[in-house]
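Predict structure. Chain length: 258.
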Amino acid sequence: MQLFSDPISAGIIASLLAGAATGVGAIPVLLGGNYSRRTLDLMLGFAAGVMLAASSFSLLVPSLELVTNWIEVITIVGLSFSLGGLFVHVADRYIPHEHFKKGEEGPSSSMARVWLLVLAITIHNFPEGIAVGVAFGGNDFIAGTSVALAIGLQNMPEGVAVAAPLVREGYSRKYAAGLALITGLVEPIGGIFGVTIAHFLLPFGLAFAAGAMIFVVGEEMVPESHSGENARLATWGLMIGFVIMMIMDNIFEFLLLG
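Prediction complete.
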């Protein structure tokens, strides 16, 4: 437990482990597994549901519990939540990147397509690291561990969703799995940023992280999972992911609190 006595170290370590789960999720692809588009959409929907639950119960609700009146709900929680979404929006608009289905976004770039794809996932993963860092930055081991668990849980199917399409585009399995791992390793950087925010103003940091994550879900994960013919299946995946994370979050808290 001494390892987690320092919130900065805890945030960095937990966000590193959560990010590494992306590489863990890509292991089946590395070992020769093949996944249909239907399976990938279900996994992506599940990951979106986990992120929504973590944003709601481990970030947004604690932020609301730290303010004392409706003015602070608007000026601290509401504004910070919106700024979190704006942060991802600006990154998405001004960093060159490419999605498997939507194609290129942001300014034009001469970078290789594979690295533009990596940048797209990196933009997605950075807010997740922020969320873990913010949660630990408030010296709340339960909240921090819960958020890290949620991010790690949703990163595993995301690792498959990153690596499998790369293999289908002709990249080697080892290369695809390695890139999936690399995209998750940006999360400790977000963790440091999140811990810093939390030290200044915890309610702001919690709501900011929630806004950033929910923006990613609405802008990237749900549209991507619905872009094929499996929208209803992806929606059920989201529902299942949300319920499982909601249950896990509460069970985890009960176990730690006795």
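Summary: Strands lie at 97-99, 103-105.
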